[in-house]
């Protein structure tokens, strides 16, 4: 049954540790889908361009100190301020490739020791992704890639904790890709999964909300 009115873009999220390749793969996926003639945009969280985003950016650069709960809620607020635009884009048929989302929010804050249910609460009601791609890489391998930019969180010991949090968060709906394989192999696997999701949403699929 093909309900044309339900046709929309797909909400596709990439998650993973720092240096897992999310940003590079996002831009490859963007070009790939554009090449196929799809309407698509690349987004990322935190979105450092908003007022809240600037507070987050200064925190990440260690230029300001904030209580762990406070920064958690700012990351969440940063998604809420983009929520309605996100819905508008999706309903108008634009697919969004999003580099980090609520799962980063919960994984990073719970890695600091905050209660996981408390971390999830402010995310309830945000749009649920149609596809979560987890770029899986051992923290040690990610660290070997170098290029940790010196921002807060970019340390092996902390990344190990984040990896553990992601493991708790992951459910059967996530698609996991071995991110330490050659870049082109990872790209190939991602293309297939993404195209599948875009096609499903194009045919018609209702939007749902986190966490369900
Ligand atoms: P980038 O290096 O990808 O810009 O991320 N983070 C991110 C959180 O702690 N909570 C969140 O909700 C999000 C989206 C992950 C900057 C850092 O911010 C962390 C790395």
Automatic annotation (TrEMBL):
Pathway, according to UniProt?
A: Pyrimidine metabolism; dTTP biosynthesis
PROSITE patterns given for it? Answer: THYMIDYLATE_KINASE (PS01331)
Please name the SUPFAM superfamilies in this protein's record: P-loop containing nucleoside triphosphate hydrolases
Q: Which Gene Ontology terms describe the biological processes this protein takes part in?
A: dTDP biosynthetic process; dTTP biosynthetic process; dUDP biosynthetic process
Q: Which InterPro entries match?
A: P-loop_NTPase, Thymidylate_kin-like_dom, Thymidylate_kin_CS, Thymidylate_kinase
CDD domains in the record, alphabetically? TMPK
**Do you know which Gene3D superfamilies this protein is assigned to?**
P-loop containing nucleotide triphosphate hydrolases (3.40.50.300)
The alphabetized UniProt keywords are: ATP-binding, Kinase, Nucleotide biosynthesis, Nucleotide-binding, Transferase
Molecular function (GO) terms listed?
A: ATP binding; dTMP kinase activity; nucleoside diphosphate kinase activity
- Cite the EC number: 2.7.4.9
Cellular component terms, GO, for this chain's entry? cytosol; mitochondrion; nucleus
Domain annotation Thymidylate kinase-like: ranges: 14-189
A single Pfam family, by name? Thymidylate_kin
Q: Which family does it belong to?
A: Belongs to the thymidylate kinase family.
This protein is called: Thymidylate kinase
Say which species the protein is native to. Actinidia chinensis var. chinensis (Chinese soft-hair kiwi)
């Amino acid at each position: 049954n093909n309900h044309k009115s339900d046709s929309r873009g797909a909400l596709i999220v990439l998650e993973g540790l720092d240096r897992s390749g999310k940003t590079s793969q996002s831009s490859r996926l963007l070009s790939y889908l554009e090449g196929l003639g799809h309407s698509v945009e690349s987004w990322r969280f935190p979105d450092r361009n908003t007022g809240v985003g600037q507070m987050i950016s200064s925190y990440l650069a260690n230029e300001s100190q904030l209580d762990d709960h406070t920064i958690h809620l700012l990351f969440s607020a940063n998604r809420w301020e983009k929520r309605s635009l996100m819905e508008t884009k999706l309903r108008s048929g634009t697919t969004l490739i999003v580099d980090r989302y609520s799962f980063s929010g919960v994984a990073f804050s719970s890695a600091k020791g905050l209660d996981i249910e408390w971390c999830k609460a402010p995310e309830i009601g945000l749009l649920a992704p149609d596809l979560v791609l987890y770029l899986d890489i051992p923290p040690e391998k990610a660290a070997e890639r170098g290029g940790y930019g010196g921002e807060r969180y970019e340390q092996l010991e902390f990344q190990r904790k984040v990896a553990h949090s992601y493991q708790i968060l992951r459910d059967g709906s996530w698609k996991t890709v071995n991110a330490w394989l050659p870049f082109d192999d990872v790209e190939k696997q991602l293309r297939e999964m993404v195209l599948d999701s875009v096609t499903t949403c194009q045919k018609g699929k209702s939007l749902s909300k986190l966490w369900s």
